[in-house]
Amino acid sequence: MSKKTIYALALSAVMLASCKESFIERPSLSGTTTGNYYNNAEEVRGATSTLYSGLPWRNYESRAQDAIGDVMGGNMFTYTDVEYLKFTVSSASDRIGAAWGAFYKIIGYANVMIKTFEEKKAAGGGAAYLDPAIAEARFIRGTVYFYIARTWGAAPIITDPGETALSGNFNIPRYIQKDVLRFALEDLKKAEAGLPESDVPGRVTKYSAKGMMAKLYLYQKDYANAKAKALEVIQSGKYSLVSDYNGMFTKASLNNNVESLFSIQHQFSQDPWGTGNIKNPDRGPGNLRTAEADAWEMYVPSISILKEYEFGDLRRKWSVMEQGWTNPNWKPQRVNAPKYNTFMANGYKYDTLQPAADGGQLSPTRANIAKYFAGPGKSFGGEPVLGQNSGNNVVLLRYADILLIYAEAVLADNASTSDASALEAFNKVRIRAGLTPKTSITKDDILHERRVEFAFEGDYWYDVQRQGFAKAKAIIEKQNRGTAQNPEYITNFTEDKMYLPIPAGEIIQDPELGKEPVPYYK
């Protein structure tokens, strides 16, 4: 771990001050002490709110999430992150550095909160509000280490950056992936024990921890525990599938809905570097760029994902814009563009035949992403958007995932299953999508369902990866990763592509990161 990263994490040790105005506003980095602060729930919850904010998560969720989860997974085509498309990612990649920095920044915040609140509690602070806050920080830290373990495999584990900085020993090794996953799971178990059964919308609860544990257990192929934890979430009765699938990602009014177990919290902001969601322009089609909304379509649906949808799957039009797709509420207009304005006057039409200057749209794959695109702006019939910013949360765990985890955990290593409870969970997801329920399911059925259900949510690469190298190779090499006119296929997928390289700058400053990983647990 580099000195720069460690010092950044150590700086978090002086952060935690109140955040009274807003649930997700970032706490001040003032030097308040445990002696004169964190004396009530409001002060403590003001501090933990930063863990949910788009500010520390920004450098992961804005583009690294797309490049790693969906470009590498084969769901997105791009001319920008071509190295993720072709599996030629180098340790100098901007996306790798951005994700690494964001993840360890969040961990730094969580570490400081855990230590600070435990010290406050030991000094006589109120356990009733400190214990849930410690559990929140453990949930976030455990979740982030789960992401780290899946992204890089072996990685550093840091629990006290302040102590590390003071010691002057920055030669921190990578720890084996098994131990990083174990550390993440231990945090999630402690979060499960300390979090409340329910809380205000947006805050994680005991069931958020159970759900994330189920996902981690599934990744480890611990099917018994994955099934048990998913079932606890299902039987709680606290969650259900939202009928407005597209709205979950495009309407701020549906933030923290009944399907969401954990989301990054965003606020609509005029500050482009504030707490807003900035996925909008990277996904929006160029013909929806207006005076209010940027749209430069950096990422578009891949040919492969377009072929994955079954006939009649409603998720296709909820997730993808293509020929014939319309939104009568969106009526974008432009200055000095009479043909464009006439074409869009009665509502937005996705048309690949119309000239681009007159309102047509012709992406490299003849499609654009609808998920997380909030529209052309409020003045033109969409959600509030200003430049890059919308107010839509980014969902990292939702109930549909729990249902499919449960079905897969019941299937386990069997070739197929007709178990009634597994089919009930699996078919709830299909029925919402307008598809016929299945009477028996296989692993490939579940992987297909997961791919289209969570398309463009940054998750599919991890589903491919957890199949093991041989199956991952077969999946990746089958995908058309080219354009509508020029198909391209990966023909040399090798085992070293299963995890991303450590950022080059980190290895230069901490050569231990370039060495073979070691056990964390003795």
UniProtKB/TrEMBL annotation:
Principal location listed in the UniProt entry: membrane
Keyword Membrane included in the entry's annotation: yes
Please name one Pfam family that this protein belongs to. SusD_RagB
Where does the record place the RagB/SusD domain?
Answer: 305-515
Keywords assigned by UniProt, alphabetized: Cell outer membrane, Membrane, Signal
Cell compartment(s), UniProt: Cell outer membrane
**Can you give the residue ranges of the SusD-like N-terminal domain?**
88-218
Gene3D superfamilies to which the protein is assigned, alphabetical: 1.25.40.390
Q: Which residues form the signal peptide?
A: none
Q: Say if the entry is tagged with keyword DNA-binding.
A: no
Name the family.
Belongs to the SusD family.
Recorded protein name is RagB/SusD family nutrient uptake outer membrane protein
Its source organism is Nibrella viscosa
